[in-house]
Specification:
Length: 93
Amino acid sequence: MSKELEIGKRYTWEEVVEAYPGMWVRMSDCNLTIGLGIIDGILAGVYTDDNVEPIQIQMWDEDSKDKLRRTTIGFNVGVIECLNAEMGVKDEP
């Protein structure tokens, strides 16, 4: 990490990537590109690959509108972005 950013402050995606390469970041109140990439947003949290899963579950449970993205993609890691795609789980009797 080149420098620590303050949680709760607005940053550009480039600033976040530079500060936290190879990490997961949670950002709120994001301005997005047409392809749903993050232009800027409020930094809400920074996570490693080992501790991101509970945050994903918490965000799903809360129906959070925050964005959780990995800043840089390493070998054997992929990201798929789809326009108008939805994923859900139903528990029907």
